Amino acid sequence: GDSVTQMEGPVTLSEEAFLTINCTYTATGYPSLFWYVQYPGEGLQLLLKATKADDKGSNKGFEATYRKETTSFHLEKGSVQVSDSAVYFCALTDEGAGSYQLTFGKGTKLSVIP
Amino acid sequence: DAGVIQSPRHEVTEMGQEVTLRCKPISGHNSLFWYRQTMMRGLELLIYFNNNVPIDDSGMPEDRFSAKMPNASFSTLKIQPSEPRDSAVYFCASRALAGTNTEAFFGQGTRLTVV
């Protein structure tokens, strides 16, 4: 079945540091890929998405590129802020393979210190 | 749009009691998901519905859990009887147009504590 593997946290960075959170996936079809963010005490909200190979999703300074050849969708940000402290989830949906659910990674907790 | 609405936000109950969690999806969405989040297990899919019909309930932990979607604007997740290990945050999410790889929108969650 489909699965998502993302780097284990927690990740602690200083403000203005460069962020990379790795995400790789396995899927039987041609999935769409997502990054969700969860701030403390809140639900998950979509950060960015990409629906086909080589697409780059971007939002709030975060970027991720859909790499079919390496089955990856790594999240990056050039300069993190304290307000970026949250848990980040990589996810996929693979409706082309008949699966209508969203499959999530385990989440990576990011803490940004001033 | 008010987004996905869950109630209650917090629930504290005694072991053995029945608990009902409620969800109102975004109007027009025709897929609905129930997830459970704990520190130990992360985010787990319990069940999802397409057009009010349960599609996959393989994530429902045991018979104590049941979910219904009587119409397009309402779903419930019931635990009877509840146990301390059911303590978690339960999220409802909805999506539009199943079949087009669209994103899901999450509610704020219900934090359940069973004592």
Helical fraction of chain A: under 10%
The number of helical elements of chain B comes to: 0
Radius of gyration of chain B: 13 Å
Label the overall shape of chain A: globular
Backbone structural class of chain B: mainly beta
Give me the count of strands of chain B. 11
Taking pLDDT < 50 over at least 5 consecutive residues as the criterion, the unreliable ranges of chain A are: none
Strand % of chain A is over 45%
Radius of gyration of chain A: 14 Å
Shape by Cα distribution of chain B: globular
Largest sheet of chain B: 7 strands, mixed
Largest sheet composition of chain A:
6 strands, mixed
On the 0 to 100 scale, the average pLDDT of chain A is: 93
Summing up helix and strand content along with how strands pair, one would put the structural category of chain A as mainly beta
Which oligomeric form is depicted? heterodimer
Order of helices and strands of chain B: EEEEEEEEEEE
Mean of pLDDT of chain B: 92
Q: List low-confidence stretches of chain B.
A: none
Helix coverage percent of residues of chain B? under 10%
